[in-house]
Amino acid sequence: MQNNEVIRIDKLPVVQPFNNQEEDSLVLEWYEVNRTIIKRESLAGRKIHLDKPSSAVLKQGLVIYQDANCVIRIFIKPCTCMVLQSSNMEVVGLFCFDVGNRHLPIYMIDDHKIAIAYDGRLFPALQQKYGGAVTLANYRLDPSQIINCYGNIYEQNIKTKK
């Protein structure tokens, strides 16, 4: 396969490791993982046309293409995030309510840390309301970490496929 050929992807492969395959990545921003069509070059310069299957969740490290010579994986770029660190559920609930009014996805980083992508207008307001509990940090916002009011869609997809 040459780098000037367009790789058209309309279903995700079953990963079967081969020896001496070149590793390549399709780099995405956190907000691009839900797009149904993605056209761009991989890190190695391969032209990619991804028609994402409706059931697919583009998460970090997911193999989207594989042949005898290369394997192409999703790479989600880390971004600046507003992070709330608190073990107080009332504070977490209020924070989620404030952020939810902006329709921004909320990500569970660990048991006492939630994050959202940086918003220049929202950050000062959150810092004023929550003080030092809200900070800036770089994180990779993976779809498997999204908190939904009706459950984690990624987790539900995994459970229904088993």
> H/E order of the elements?
EEEEEEEHEEHEEH
Number of helices: 3
The overall strand count is: 11
**What is the straight-line distance between the termini?**
35 Å
Question: Strand order, biggest sheet?
Answer: 10-7-9-8-11
The average pLDDT value, as a whole number, equals: 84
Low-pLDDT parts are none
| Secondary-structure-derived class | alpha+beta
Whole-angstrom Rg: 18 Å
Helical proportion?
10-25%
Percent of residues in beta strands? 35-45%
Largest sheet: 5 strands, antiparallel
Broad shape: elongated
Structural topology:
Elements: E1 6-9, E2 22-28, E3 37-41, E4 47-51, E5 63-66, E6 70-76, E7 79-85, H1 89-100, E8 106-110, E9 113-117, H2 122-130, E10 134-139, E11 146-147, H3 153-161
Parallel strand pairs: 1-4, 2-6
Antiparallel strand pairs: 3-4, 5-6, 7-9, 7-10, 8-9, 8-11
Structure commentary:
The protein is α+β, with helices and mostly antiparallel strands and 162 residues long. It contains 3 helices and 11 strands; from the N terminus they run E-E-E-E-E-E-E-H-E-E-H-E-E-H. The chain has helices at residues 89-100, 122-130, 153-161, and strands at residues 6-9, 22-28, 37-41, 47-51, 63-66, 70-76, 79-85, 106-110, 113-117, 134-139, 146-147. The strands form 3 sheets. A 5-stranded antiparallel sheet has the order 10-7-9-8-11. Strands 1-4-3 form a 3-stranded mixed sheet, with no helix packed on it. A hairpin with a 3-residue loop joins strand 5 and strand 6. The radius of gyration is 18 Å and the shape is elongated. The two termini are 35 Å apart.
